Amino acid sequence: MVRPTSEMTALVLAAGIGSRLRPITDTIPKAMVALTPTLPLLEHVLRQLTLQGIRRFVINLHHHPDAIRGYFGNGARFGAWIQYSDESDQLLDTAGAVRKAAEHLSDDFLLVYADQLHFYDYAPLIELHRRHKPLATVTLKRSDLPQNGDLAEAGPDARITQWYARPHEHRDFGGGKYLNAGMTVLSRRIVDHIPAGRPVSLDREVIPELVRTGQPVYGLAVETEILDVGTPEKYAYARQWFSARLDAAPRTRKALFLDRDGVILRELTPGHYLTDWSEARPTPGITELVAGARELGYLVLVATNQPQIGRGLLTEAGLQSIHQKLAELVGNNLDAIYHCPHVDEDGCECRKPKHGLLERAAREWQVSPETSFMVGDTFRDVGAASRFGCRSIFLRNEQNDGDLARCQPDHVVNQLGEVLDLLRESTR
Ligand SMILES: [Zn+2]
User: Peptide bond before 23: cis, by omega within 30 degrees of 0?
Assistant: First the structure.
């Protein structure tokens, strides 16, 4: 799996207030509701896109903007580059959001709703858009009642001939009608069709007008399940559905798991933990290893014990800002960073040498242990790798021979360049 790289931007609409989800949304925007105890919906939305090679995002903000900005930062921790379009003062609706964010968008860009939960493969949609180069290519579905959304009629060439914005009279899909499913590719030229200075709806104003005046708009019918999280009942169902999806998904991806301290960063004095980025020293070869692993089709996932959180020496926010710097150091090429905040006495399942962190990452990213590697510099890393079932690589340094004597790694290396050789051999 070599991931395509794309300069295409995705505009992620995250300004939804989620008023029917109160009290959950009293303190967070709807896009930040948790799918699992450690995974907000918006993070899943971004992951699905980065997995498909789309790594440049503009996120619009309105309700509790700092909850999103504070968590995602500049995107580096998520293998992405994120810019924000602040609508704190005035919500601009879908097309208004496009107009406001226009300068940050690529010539063709994706429009994605942060409150839709799905695992959609965008490639056919992007392909259809690139073939016809219209102003808009929308996704279409029939998995809901016709009256619940905007309806489109498409000809055999996928060009949309009629658009019925809600509210409308239609109660069936006769005449080749479909519902607008949400995910859309737009040409930035569409900005010329969006009035300035007020909220404008794409589905109820701009697209109907384009279709009415004979401008090209295309539609692609999709079968993928798309869930809404807008009410407590739907949100509860969405979490169950998501969990079942993760449990059932075949684990086919290969990953390079990296320990942080002693692998990405040089070990500080034993027992001294990093609480300030200015103390960090990268291990020689780490940038090349991370980029090389990605090129070979590996996910690059960090799994690190951070007991200084459990000891009260560092906050989660402080750790996030260190990890943003860490991710920037390797060119925004880490897919995700998993950490255990506990101390031994907590008896958690995620502190290495237990393998809870690796298992959580594997479940969320569909990672196969058999084709994956873990690089570490202590017996804890080797123990976690062997419990998880992936191959372990022990990185020696001047002070860890004692650790090496306590474990049986599959490989022992003296420098990170040797890790890349092992990955290459394994890929051959
Ligand atoms: Zn833990």
Answer: yes
